Amino acid sequence: MQKLFGIHPVLEAIRAGKKIEKVLLKQGMEGPAFRELITCIGENDIPYQYVPVEKLNREVRGAHQGVVALLAEIDYVDIETLVNNALATSEEPVLVILDGVSDVRNLGAIARTLECCGGKGIIVPAKGGAAVNAEAVKASAGALLRIDTSKVPNLRLAAYLLKQNGFKLVAATEKAAGSLYETDLRGPLAIVMGSEGKGISDSLLSLCDERCAIPMVGEISSLNVSVATAIVLYEAFRQKTCSK
C-alpha cells in the first residue's frame, strides 16, 4: 500500500481529492496545523486512528511529523455512479452491501464471487469496514479492480438511494424465518450481509424489503460471511438465469 507522510503533504493530498484509506496520527498531537488537518479529515469522512509513535516509525522512514496516510489501492466510485453503472449494464443487476465486515480476506473473497456471477458492485461503510488494500485485492484475484466499489459515510442513506432506483434489498440473516430458497431474488437486487459477530445493524435491517436464512442442519449455527454471501449470490444467479 502506498503511503504519504507529513502534515502538509497529507493535507494537500486530501484537498486534491486523493483516495485515502486511513490516516494514522501520533497520540497527543496538538497545534494549529494539526487542528487544520483533523478538520479536513472530518469534512471528507476519512477514517483515522491515533497510534503510538513507534507504529508510525515502523510504517515509514522519514520525518513523518506524526502523520501517515495510507492510500487506497483502487479508485472508489460514488454511490450514484455505482447505481447508474449497474442499471446501465444489466436489466437485473446484483450489488452487495457489507455492514461491518472487517476482514480483508472475506472482502476479497466476496468480490471474487460477485464478479464470477456477474455482480456489479460492492458498497462498504467509510468507517468500520475492511480496508480495500493490497491483501484484499489479492484475495479477490483482481476482482476489486474490475467491479465498482463505493465507500459511503452512511449505509442507510445508500439503502434509501438503492430503493429509490428500484433495487430490492434482501438481508441474509440466520434470524430470518423465511428460507433463502423461498425468497424471490429476481430483478435489481442488493444483498445485505453483516459481520459474523454482530450481524446486520438494526437500523439497516429495518430498511430491507425481505429477510432470508440459509438452511443448515449441522451443530454449527453460522457460516463464514464470504461463504454465506457466495451461497446467496449463486441462488440469485440461478433464479435470474432459470427465469429467462
How many domains comprise the coordinates?
A: 2
CATH topology of the largest domain: Alpha/beta knot
Report the principal-axis shape.
Answer: elongated
By DSSP (H or I, 4+ residues per run), the number of helices equals 9
The run of helices and strands is: EHEHEHEHEHEHEHEEHEH
Overall SS class: alpha/beta
Look at the structure and name the CATH superfamily of the largest domain.
SPOUT methyltransferase, trefoil knot domain
Which spans have pLDDT < 50 for at least 5 consecutive residues? none
What percentage of the residues does DSSP assign to strands (E)? 15-25%
In which range does the helix fraction lie? 25-40%
Characterize the main sheet. 6 strands, parallel
Radius of gyration: 19 Å
Report the count of strand segments.
Answer: 10
What is the CATH architecture assignment of the largest domain? 3-Layer(aba) Sandwich
The average pLDDT is 92
Q: What CATH first level of the largest domain would be assigned? A: Alpha Beta
Provide a quick synopsis of the model.
With 244 residues, the protein is of the alpha/beta class. The protein has nine helices and ten strands. The strands form two sheets. It has a six-stranded parallel sheet, with helices on both faces.
Notes on the structure:
The protein is α/β, with parallel strands linked by helices. It has 2 domains: 69 residues, Ribosomal protein L30/S12 (60s Ribosomal Protein L30, Chain: A); 164 residues, Alpha/beta knot, CATH 3.40.1280.10. It is built from 9 helices and 10 strands. The strands form 2 sheets. It has a 6-stranded parallel sheet, with helices on both faces. A 4-stranded mixed sheet has the order 1-4-2-3. Helix 6 links the parallel strand 6 and strand 7. Helix 1 packs parallel to helix 2. The mean pLDDT is 92.
